[in-house]
Specification:
Chain A is mostly helical and 292 residues long. Helices cover 78% and strands 0% of the residues of chain A. With 281 residues, chain B is mainly alpha-helical. The chains are: A mainly alpha (292), B mainly alpha (281), C alpha/beta (252).
Chain lengths: 292, 281, 252
């Protein structure tokens, strides 16, 4: 009798610790960013200059960098994610070829991010550099565009695997109804499957976006780490930049005074809150979708 | 009429071709990356490479023994922390799905799954590195354990939820007390599912770099002291890949090859287990 | 005075607000086969699960009234001891998939951490499997997994598992509803032999089965125990109108 109670108590405590852990993460981030919040205020978020040497901190370059890389990557990845989801979900849901493709896509997510970064640095950067020279922009090689390309590949599996399972869940009477009216396969996909799975596919994109926003290593290795704002849109896109995650990775251990360190943590706090919200919305949509 | 039908059919076929093209073309970058790393890395790996620490700049030779040992120690320590806690929490979630604590704990799992790994590293820096006054393998392990937790919890929860109630009833009707029912019947029956979740989580964290940057930090020497800075494979790859020296790049390629092989093998094993036991994760 | 094996007086059970068993009073005597029948949702399974205190494991479940094993109040005993003394066999065969046939039979001992010498353990396994009419079929594959057996064999394995604990009473919750006719008849034949050593309480929705195997039959309707009598009496001359309606097929 006693052991039973002890065991149940232990299970309860373990779950409670999880709550403490997550609250602890949030509280730590808030407490540690207090010096920066106090001395820089809310205008920290749109301050355009990040110059630790002169004690000026503005997050704007990193917000722009993060949004630019993540959304470029997302836009590149969507056609592929959708294509994989439609192929594995509708055209070819079973068999060895389907399994092979599915496992290969999952492998993309399994390769460590630092390896993508290393490969990008030694193979992709020279290619991009010559490409940039051809189209007449400064040939850095590294930069927002390069990071986005690698990032796009890295985030495909998240939207693709969710999309696949959602498309497989479309009730066949719905599809058969359309076929019975003489619809072609393309028409069934366009007017039955895609509308039916729209919110779920959107949730998959949110999960991919969450990944892209928080991805650190590959981006930190490929983005060029410049905290200055580019002069033109072309430069902002092809030239070097920085994201919230990459600036933290590069400068955290060098931050030698309180406000500098604290400003970096505030970036972390923003990143945490944004990714958590995006993920939770995505998960909410999925639960709602799969329950109906 | 006939002409319109033809157009519609052509449209359908064109669409299908585009889909197939897009779906398969994306495997090309992956294959290129894998082949490139194998090509660059496999020539580096030999016994000397595995048993020596990196050579200083300007000297040839050297290996990655410090990173190998470091990765093993850090991952083992993380598993030691995350596996028992994760399994117990997973049991709680599957057994008490309707309680308020389960709701919030489930929410926390979702949150942890989405936390950027760099943020975890930053937080653990304040929890452990600062109080101890030094970077340490221990702090790195805690950071990685936090990354492992949600995967272990979810896989345990999902596996146990799939087991039929009749199993639990059979054991209870024999007068077996609750904790023994769970530990001796339910968990062993879900063993394969839990194991594959654990392997997946190990595969995930062994390549994590960002949480280690401000915790384990890296160390050019062989060290097994968990309260001191420690090297790990991904840290070594990051540091040497971004260095300007060719010898160091070669070390990083060798390390990438070993890390990649380990991760791929773990994934394949997990696949085999889940297929053999027919588990959905 | 000799006590009945199981006796209930004014026993009630609830699932949340649902009053599933209403004021049941019954006396069950030793070494008899009791059939409990009634339309589905009549409380027969709930009553069965109250006898070995499995009912209380459902969230929101509640009981009231007296339920005794001989002279002891089941609801003041340790539930674990109750379940040692009152075994149970379920609707679907549920051998432990992670255990061998041998370990399944002695699961009650092993899972409870009771240490028994190997020789005695072997003896228990052989005796229980023999009583469950399974020994000859599995004696050469005792260390294979129990899940490879056929449905009927699995159910007999579950019976052996219950017998191994040497219970006073064995509860059967529709034990043949998931089985084919041949397996069913072999289990029914087993009831007659088990009667010599145990008291059997069998919930069934199959009237023919109740008539074939039991000494006495209890008829439940809407949570009440309507009638409890000798099986032959019940099927030839029921006292209550509702029983008559049921056995002549006027419900459902």
């Amino acid at each position: 009798m006693k052991w039973e109670t002890v065991f149940k108590r232990v299970l309860w405590i373990m779950s409670a610790i999880l709550l403490v852990l997550v609250i602890g993460i949030l509280v730590t981030l808030i407490v540690q960013s207090m010096p920066s919040i106090k001395s820089l205020g809310i205008k920290f978020l749109w301050g355009k200059i990040w110059d630790p040497v002169n004690n000026i901190y503005g997050a704007y370059p990193f917000l722009i960098g993060t949004i630019l890389t993540s959304f470029t990557a997302l836009i590149i990845s969507i056609p592929f994610s959708y294509a994989i989801a439609i192929y594995l979900g509708e055209y070819n849901p079973k068999g060895w070829l389907s399994n092979l493709l599915k496992n290969t896509i999952e492998l993309i997510a399994a390769v460590p991010s630092v390896i993508y970064g290393f490969w990008g640095l030694s193979v992709l950067v020279p290619v991009i550099r010559s490409f940039e020279a051809k189209i007449g922009v400064a040939p850095y090689g590294v930069g927002v565009f390069t990071s986005s390309l690698v990032l796009a590949v890295m985030i495909i599996p998240y939207a693709a695997s969710l999309g696949t399972s959602l498309i497989r869940m479309v009730p066949s009477p719905l599809k058969e109804g359309a076929y019975a009216l003489g619809a072609t396969r393309f028409e069934v996909i366009r007017s039955v499957i895609l509308p039916y799975t729209r919110s779920g596919l959107f949730a998959g994109i949110l999960l991919s976006l969450g990944r892209a926003l928080g991805e650190t290593m590959a981006v930190a290795m490929l983005i060029g780490n410049t905290s200055a704002i580019a002069h033109s849109i072309k430069d902002a896109f092809f030239g070097p930049g920085n994201t919230m995650a990459s600036v933290i990775a590069n400068e955290f251990t060098e931050a030698d005074h309180t406000v500098y360190l604290s400003a970096l943590i505030e970036l972390g706090l923003v990143l945490f809150v944004v990714t958590v919200i995006i993920n939770l919305i995505g998960k909410k949509i999925i639960t709602k979708y799969t329950n109906n | 009429m006939d002409a319109r039908l033809k157009v519609r059919n052509t449209k359908s076929i064109v669409f299908k071709s585009i889909i197939i093209f897009l779906a398969f073309v994306i495997t090309i970058p992956l294959i290129i990356i894998l082949l490139y790393i194998i090509k660059q890395g496999v020539t580096q790996v030999n016994w000397h490479f595995l048993t020596h620490v990196p050579a200083p700049v300007g000297e040839t030779g050297g290996g990655i023994s410090n990173a190998l040992l470091g990765s093993i120690i850090i991952v083992a320590l993380s598993s030691l922390i995350a596996i028992p806690t994760g399994i117990l929490t997973g049991i709680y979630l599957s057994e008490n799905a309707t309680t308020r604590l389960a709701y919030y704990a489930g929410l926390c799992v979702d949150i942890l799954q989405g936390v950027p790994s760099i943020v975890v590293g930053m937080v653990v820096y304040f929890w452990i590195v600062k109080p101890l006054g030094t970077f340490s393998a221990l702090s790195g392990s805690v950071a990685l354990a936090i990354m492992m937790l949600p995967i272990v919890i979810r896989s345990t929860e999902q596996t146990l939820k799939l087991l039929p109630d009749s199993l639990k009833e059979a054991a209870l009707s024999l007068g077996v007390p609750y904790h023994r029912v769970i530990l001796k019947v339910i968990v062993p029956c879900g063993f394969a599912g839990i194991l594959s979740g654990i392997m997946l989580s190990v595969a995930r964290i062994v390549g994590e770099t960002a949480p280690l940057l401000f915790t384990a930090f890296g160390n050019p020497y062989l060290s097994a002291a968990i309260t001191k800075p420690m090297q790990s494979l991904p840290l070594l790859i990051f540091n040497y890949a971004t260095s300007p020296y060719d010898e160091w790049h070669n070390l990083a390629w060798g390390a990438s090859f070993i890390l990649l092989m380990f991760v791929l093998l773990l994934n394949i094993f997990t696949k085999l287990i889940t297929r053999k036991w027919n588990i959905q994760l | 005075m000799e006590h009945s094996v199981i006796s209930a007086s004014n026993f009630n059970a609830w699932f949340g607000d649902n009053h599933a068993v209403k004021d049941v009073s019954i006396k069950i005597e030793k070494n008899q086969v009791i059939a409990v029948m009634g339309p589905s949702g009549c409380g027969k399974t709930t009553f069965l699960r109250c006898i070995n205190r499995m009912h209380e494991l459902v969230p929101g479940a509640r009981t009231e009234g007296m339920l005794k094993l001989y002279a002891d109040d089941i609801y003041t005993m340790n539930p674990i001891y109750v379940r040692y003394k009152i075994g149970m066999v379920f609707q679907r065969p549920n051998p432990f998939p992670n255990l061998s046939i041998y370990d399944n039979v002695v699961a009650g001992y092993k899972l409870n951490g009771l240490k028994i010498p190997k020789v005695e353990m072997d003896h228990i396994v052989e005796k229980s499997l023999t009583s469950a009419a399974l020994w000859n079929e599995v004696k050469d594959s005792l260390h294979k997994k129990g899940t490879f057996l056929s449905g009927g064999q699995q159910q007999r394995l579950c019976i052996a598992r219950a017998i191994a604990m040497e219970p006073e009473v064995i509860l059967f919750d529709e034990p043949t509803s998931a089985l084919d006719p041949i397996s069913t008849s072999s289990i029914e034949a087993l009831f007659h032999e088990l009667k010599a050593n145990y008291t059997l309480i069998i919930v069934t929705h199959n009237m023919q089965q109740a008539a074939r195997v039991s000494d006495k039959t209890a008829f439940f309707y809407l949570g009440e125990l309507v009638e409890f009598d000798n099986t032959r009496q019940m099927f030839t001359a029921p006292k209550d109108k509702r029983t008559q309606n049921y056995i002549t097929g006027r419900f459902s």
